[in-house]
Amino acid sequence: MKKNIIALVGLLCLHFMVYAQPKLMINLKENQQTGFFLNEIKNISFTPTNLVLNFEDNNPQNILINSINNFRVEVVSIVTDIEDNEIVNKQNSLSAVALFPNPASETVTVKYELQKNEKVEIEVFNLAGTSLLSIQDEGVSGQNSISLPLNQLNTSGIYLVKLKTNDKLETLKLIKY
Q1: Of 87, 92, 95, 143, which is the most buried if we count CB atoms within 10 A?
Q2: pTM > 0.70: yes or no
Q3: CATH fold of the domain at 91-176
Q4: What pLDDT, in 10s, does the model give residues 135-173?
Q5: What is the topology classification, in CATH, of domain 2-76?
């Protein structure tokens, strides 16, 4: 469980760099739940019996490992506009994101749908967080697709493909063989 928590938090910090408020939710065996915003966690460590979350204010939180049922990360993100003194939820413009073929060896097609014409930034990262490929696409309202050359990815393995518009960020897993 220790490695799962560390790996999940690391990947999610990459995925939710700026655009959302990811929260680590821990379900305890006593049907209790506790949550912590990832951007407030300085580091995570373990003792033989505790999960220790250290925060910016140097006030650690200790959780007994054997009291944890499971954990997940949920995103607290509401994109809003103020219109006529009311707060109105905006519909995200980016949807129906897919990669094919996946796994791939030479090229992969990124397919996505937009509500309106707008730029889409597409970036490929290795699991260490290094950007290996970056492309900007002029997306149009409706279905879009773009082919990504995988020759810049030197080795076989798992990569993250990030699509970003003005109001949405999506990350997909790509397997290169």
Answers
A1: 92
A2: no
A3: Immunoglobulin-like (2.60.40)
A4: 999 999 999 999 999 998 889 998 999 999 888 888 888
A5: SH3 type barrels. (2.30.30)
